[in-house]
Task: structure prediction
Amino acid sequence: MGRPRVPLLSRERIRDTALTLIDRDGLAGLSMRKLAAELGVQAASLYKHYGTKDEVLDAIVHRVISGVDTSAFERGDEWPSALADWARSYRTALAAHPNLVPYLAEGPGHRDEGMRMANAVHGGLVGAGWPPREATLIGAATRHLVMGSSVGSFARGFVDDVQVYRDRYPHLEQAHLLRGRADQIDTASFELALSSFIDGLRARYDALR
Result:
């Protein structure tokens, strides 16, 4: 018997192809019809594996969030280092797929991986002595910080024509250099925000004790 013309579908292949579409075309670029065309099959074939597009998106979220490391909280590490490790791992996962961030921003909801992550962070913070309400606020604030830094690049928003800035914005005369150093600047700005955030939390923690 000859080999099939189209590779067999699987949940993993559908999920990964959908993520590729989102990375390339954005959330608006994903539909079951477009996904089927990308896979070279009829849309009806997809519904044997996923009942709706939202089920596909939830599978993608599971894959992306499952890579976020919360082990420092689970080990009982000091809360500042555990928070920093989680935030960096979370940002790395989201920055690889910035077009997915708006969907993730809707909240953990019923998604198992999001709930697992929230549970580990909240438990670690409360176990370290933070009141439950404060732990909830810290988790939410860290999430806002991570998502804001993942959704787009500050430095890539500047054109590399020096005259654009020199003629009209003299205080930004070096801004034409930003685009070429985008990764370095975006990472450094995230680290600045994260360290400042944690330093502020240290003072808050001491005041609560």
